[in-house]
## 1
Amino acid sequence: MTTQRQSIHGQWSSRWMYILAATGAAVGLGNIWKFPYLTGEHGGSAFVLVYLLCVALLGIPMMMAEVMLGRRGRQNPVNTMRTLAKEANTSRHWQLIGLAGTLAGVLILSYYSVIGGWTLAYAFRSGTGAFNGATAEQASSLFSQFVGEPLGVLGWHTLFMVMTMVVVARGVRYGLERAVKYLMPALFILLVVLVGYATTTGYFLEGLAFMFAPDFSKLTGTSMLAAMGQAFFSLSLGMGTIMIYGSYVPQEISIARTSIVIALADTLIAILAGIAIFPIVFANGLEPKAAGPGLIFETLPVAFAQMPGGHLIGVLFFVLLMVAAWTSSISLIEPAVTVLVENFGMTRLKASWLSGLTTWALGFGTIFSFNVWADYRLFQKNFFELLDFLTANIMLPLGGLFLAIFAGWLMAKEASQPEFAMRTTLGFQIWHLLIRYIAPVAMLMIFFVAVGLL
């Protein structure tokens, strides 16, 4: 029986708007640096093939499951899991999975916003020539000096959070949709411009070889697990964002087809980012295997400063990062906002600013981790590292595991199958097989690797 529930927050106006929004949720800072780095580190196109296989066998089925649960429940993740647990005649404690995902989104955004603020600051710094003539050591020192000044970082963090909450407060049609309608095409155009510039560096083919030259000797068990983890995390699974976006999906839109398109778009953007970045890195004799903040905020500014037109390219690159962070941020906070609206009777405006203010305040911990709290450590980790470990290594993999168990084992086929509305039962049977057996095992492996048990 097809559900007749409707979300009180509205729904996406079209299939295209949903794809843009969900792709924006999936595309984040990790797409820009982590996927290209992993590709070059683990065998080029050989790794890409394994990654695509993991996306097909884990990422897409998990995304379909989250969207299906969201559309079936048409509420925030907490209420959706409570409603569907009641429908499945099982314990209401399954709502804790929705609560954990919602909480994970808030915790992630608390430090994600700080890094988003860094991208704003570096776009401004690149435009003003702050990195002119800087060596790698000087760029590293400039970054350390920047994050070492809490008041300055707080200002950029505050600006980024305000940008996020202004969008979220306006709702589905006038906030989320309008933002992604312009931001996602802008992100793609910026990437294409940067790829075009990369072709002029003289190292374009070397960059392509680093990412795509197949080296199957580099494919190890570690490579397989890296591909599996990236397939899961890259699609923003397990944190309530895809479930809440799924609750806004009109009934006539195909969950399977749109999930495939979103996964492919997410992968394409990650690949284009690598094609844009690595020729610039090679052209300046820099280390291509640096990952994360080291590559983005220390290595690349030096490269931009040494290139003709580097000011403009640097600004474009950091604006690209900001857009990727922004589209992810509005999806991370959306579940918390809907919980406050549905469960506590708040207006969307009040819920948005309350959740935003709480998340902003939590961001102080990340800001202080690089300066006044730098020497305070628990389990050899500062506040930021603990938060990152807790969310990425524990909450998200376990959340994905329990969602897969619920969708595959506890939810009746009579409830889930109508949501997919597939022309034949074969497609549904394949999904049900993957979500029942492959996804839980894969999620356990990701969790065991993340906590160091594998």
## 2
Amino acid sequence: MTRDLLVFGEDWGGLPSSTQYLITHLSTHNKTVWVNSIGLRRPKICLHDVKRMWHKMTSINHIVSDQTVLPNDNFRIVNPKTIPAPQYKLERKIASELIAAQVKPVIKKAELQSPILWMSLPTAIDVAEKIDHDALIYYCGDDFSSLAGVDHETVRQHEIKLVEKADLIIAASDSIAAHFPAEKTRVLPHGVDYLLFSTATKRAKDLVNDGRPIAGFYGSISKWLDLDLLTQTITRLPEWHFVFIGAAVIDVETLSQFDNVTFLGERVHDQLPSYVQHWTACLLPFIDNQQIQHCNPLKLREYLASGRPVISTQFPALSPYLEFVITVKTVDEMVLALTNSIPKGINRHQQLAVSSQTWSSQADKVSMWLDLL
């Protein structure tokens, strides 16, 4: 695929995402302009939102930061200033005109010619009418109707229009694809940076090393974690150490009171193998709600690529890997699964199961689909 790309996604360089992985590979041979997030909800009066708004308002239009790492020389970023998640007709009109006015000069400077318009955020759809494009792609990696931190009705209104206008819809799972017209929807499961997570690396210096086996989790420490299951399991297993990596956006005092629990905070994604490869077991302890039923976490395949035992509560995205994932419902089952994982080493069959599911291979499929448009 050699056609130019205009991408509306989340903020480039933030948390790793399927869109960033795919576009990194697709942009190798084409000129690409990436437009940072225009939001999925109204900002709130809180420290996190105020900081984010200040960053967006003070960033230079096409250069987010001198430290921003771009995938290649053909890649440019636009950091638009606009109305986040516009809801009403006038708001949507103003927002789309503001974004188009900021994006068009960058398109011209980058010399994009009738690009393929790729949208990972439904709230960008109004801009499509104001920018020349060759085709419109909706890449849907989440079920926005159940996703936390989203203005659901506003996003639903935008998504209806995006689904109608899209030439191709790419869904990250069968459950998400079921929401869209079958005749123009394809399913693309998430890939994995296989070499990063399967290649042996040294133990992180700050990873606890007190002789106890380690049960680890990385990702957003949010309300979709089953805190009750974790609390009871940790109480039952004082001979284990439980390590959490990621930003805590909920009160974790219940867990942090235990002397066998460590919260390490956020870590750069490329550093994660130096932790996960040295855990005894990897955890996916989610509650059962609509968001989790539609989720397809990137960490699932990363855990599998590390070769370490994976213990998880049940959700549909596990289905292709049930041979390798131990699913649990109760505290007793979690305790037993962890205890049985102690003597296990690297599972080469588990690694092999995801070795062909690289982001490069997934991007090749997308490239083929785009060529057919």
## 3
Amino acid sequence: MPVADPLTTIGWEVFEALDLIGKAGYLQAPDGRENHVLIAQQFGRARLETLGALATRIRRISKDEAGLRYLRGIMAGRRAMLYFTQPSSRTFLSFCAACQILGIGIGEVRDTATSSEFKGETQEDSVRTFGSYFDLIVMRSQLGGLAERMAWVLSNTTRPVPIINAGSGKDQHPTQALLDIYTLQRSFETRGGIDGKSVAFVGDLARGRTVRSLAWLLTNYRDMTLYFVAPKELQIGSDILELLHRRGVRTVLEEDFAAVIPKVDAIYMTRIQDEWDAQPGASGKLGTDRYHFTAAHLAQLRPDAILMHPFPRRQEIAVEVDRDPRAMYWRQMRNGMWIRCALIASMFRREQEIESYDGR
């Protein structure tokens, strides 16, 4: 962690009250790298391109045994705590694999019943304990804002360590947004990049933190059109729309999924997040099967369009669609491991070692 940490210059109550753009300014080190990764708003276009290029470089180095051995030495001796108190498989395993590629040792807490929180220890004390043993904390919680609070706490201790938000309530999932952008970068690299593309977000947009984070990152690109396709009860929040409009992004709210399919370059499907229902089963009464992508929809999808999904999947995409080359979600998942490798390596200033690898 760099000595110059802006979070040491602001009180928690003042930081908490800032809007997302205001908070972003307190999360970067003077060299532009991240002290903590908490929100999508802290990533600009140049940083996204740098991280994408570094992820591709790591992916290429890893293709042979010599490259893998080299990468495992990049951060040998460093340790990461994976503090996942909300259920996760892909994000947890992706971070686990990314750490292993870089030679980082791993500890984990996935159930507070097995930790001292069961005895009444506060989360602040738990995280400060992790900071005593580990060099990085990756945390996922159903409590919105918890990662921000813990980052401020650790920045203002005698042993500050970086925190990466791996999912925070219904608010943010910044590293999922990074892998989504990396997938779009790779998918459109021969088509002029992401600029000028149309992207449709489909499904549960009111409670989908992946949608909130990715939609913001897309404001870094020119001439974008974002379609939000959902029943009224699950439509994107006005707070996100306001941020998008302030950045000059065209938005279209739509309920007719079939009408949107032939118009867009990318479709981002999401599941219905009924775990957040105030009344069990409430989401099931909304007729959400209208927002499923079936094999019949493939004929409507542009030949060069792509289909994405952050997973887990229920019935939003028929399994028959998996064989279509435009189905990008399995590659998207693997991209998560590479972009998280790049993010961690960059936060610890290891880019030069990665770029200097000569293949011997």
